[in-house]
Amino acid sequence: MEFFIDTASITDIKKYKALGLVDGVTTNPALLAKEGKSPIEQISEITALVDGPVSVEVTYTEPDKMVAQAKKLCKLADNIVIKVPCSFAGLDTAIRLKAEGIKMNATLVFHPSQAVPFIKLGVEYASLFIGRVEDFGLSNVEAIYAMSASIEEMGSPTKLLSASIRNPDYLMEAIEGGSDAITVPPVCWEKVYSNPLFALGEKEFLDSWRGLDESMRVEYESID
Ligand code: G3P
What we know:
By secondary structure, the protein is α/β, with parallel strands linked by helices. It has 12 helices and 8 strands. An 8-stranded parallel barrel has the order 1-2-3-4-5-6-7-8, surrounded by 7 helices.
């Protein structure tokens, strides 16, 4: 299972890469805009920093423009994967980009049916959004299982990429549901390691430890 980081921040990419959590990177126009720098320079820096796939999204909605932009964007680096919207226009675009051998990530999938033609086409990734559905009090967990089963049933090379992972529960659901890849934003990893029960447990162990005679603690802590 691949773990991508969902960010365009160089600082975050470096931090999570060192922690073994960057098999690739996913960006979107909003994440690039948040950095406030030249997106082209930002993308070039990201692609140089990671060996794995870096998803970069088109910013048009018309197929001719998406195709032209995608062809130029993928020249920036060999590990670029073009994010195309999971729409009729995106499908038209994807068919044309596939013919050019361009790698793609079909994005903004909210229902597995949206991804079916892209899975049939054999795009590299299809991004199922979890958090953006659950923001409205609905669950998209079943969709993970359904999409995973569809890909297998259709005998497609497309990888199910679970995206829009907002918290530790979504992360676990994405793993259990059979995702091939999960893109996790830094804020989710921060939540994973902000568990108050962990902090309490760690504090209790160390408080009790300090009750032991100092010479015995020193012996243990300076063992060689
Ligand atoms: O890859 C998906 C991601 O870029 C969007 O996630 O958190 O804005 O719903 P989010």
